């Protein structure tokens, strides 16, 4: 049997540890031994390994690795830094320049799709052909620096296709007018 030292209420439940009225810790009655020993049911303590030192200060300083740079294509190598762990300079090589072939293709597609409105294709078609030819000449002279041969060819074809369609349209329209007057 347990009792509350503050309100002196008695409890017969051995599993109860606190008073239900005021929350005080219950004590066993005088001369009575607890039926089960009081114990803490906390989880077991686990001893972990000592923490690792991930950035030791006592490492021997190594010279940065020597790098070779391709000739004439890259600028001068960056100056050597006097750090223990200098960041590795990344050599990023961009792809070939494809600006003119992309412009040629966009102009050629625009000449076919919106070029029929107010004959704006008469301006877009030649621009597509000229930029496509310039892009192909650049690709032929320096294929490492300039790419997009297929895009330039597609721009030339779409620009020419507009003019073929325009000539066909004018011939059909002229024939209809000529034959309609008879």
Strand order, biggest sheet? Answer: 2-1-3
Q: Rounded to an integer, what's the Rg over CA atoms? A: 44 Å
Work out the number of β strands: 3
Please estimate the helix content: 25-40%
> Which geometry do the CA atoms define?
elongated
Biggest beta-sheet profile: 3 strands, antiparallel
Q: What class would the helix/strand composition place it in? A: mainly alpha
- Low-confidence sequence ranges: none
Distance between the termini: 127 Å
Tally of alpha and pi helices = 3
Mean pLDDT: 81
Order of helices and strands: EEEHHH
**Which range does the strand content fall in?**
under 5%
Could you explain how this protein is built, in words?
This protein has 182 residues and is mainly α. Among the domains are: 1-37, no CATH class; 99-180, no CATH class. Helices cover 37% and strands 3% of the residues. It contains three helices and three strands; from the N terminus they run E-E-E-H-H-H. It has a three-stranded antiparallel sheet, with no helix packed on it. The longest helix is centred in the C-terminal third of the chain and has 32 residues, at 149-180. The chain is elongated and about 135 Å long. The protein starts with a strand and ends with a helix. The mean pLDDT is 81.
């Amino acid at each position: 049997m347990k009792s509350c030292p503050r309100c002196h209420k008695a409890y017969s439940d051995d599993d109860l540890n606190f008073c239900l009225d005021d929350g005080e810790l219950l004590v066993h009655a005088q001369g009575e031994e607890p039926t089960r020993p009081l114990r803490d049911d906390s989880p077991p303590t686990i001893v972990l390994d000592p923490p690792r030192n991930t950035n030791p200060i006592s490492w021997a300083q190594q010279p940065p690795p020597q790098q070779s740079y391709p000739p004439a294509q890259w600028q001068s190598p960056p100056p050597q830094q006097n750090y223990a762990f200098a960041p590795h300079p990344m050599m990023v090589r961009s792809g070939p320049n494809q600006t003119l072939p992309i412009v040629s293709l966009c102009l050629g597609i625009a000449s076919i799709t919106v070029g029929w409105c107010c004959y704006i294709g008469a301006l877009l078609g030649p621009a597509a052909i000229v930029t496509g030819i310039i892009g192909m000449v650049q690709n032929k002279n320096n294929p490492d620096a300039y790419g997009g041969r297929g895009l330039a060819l597609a721009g030339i074809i779409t620009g020419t296709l507009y003019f073929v369609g325009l000539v066909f349209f004018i011939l059909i329209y002229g024939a209809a007018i000529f034959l309609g007057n008879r």
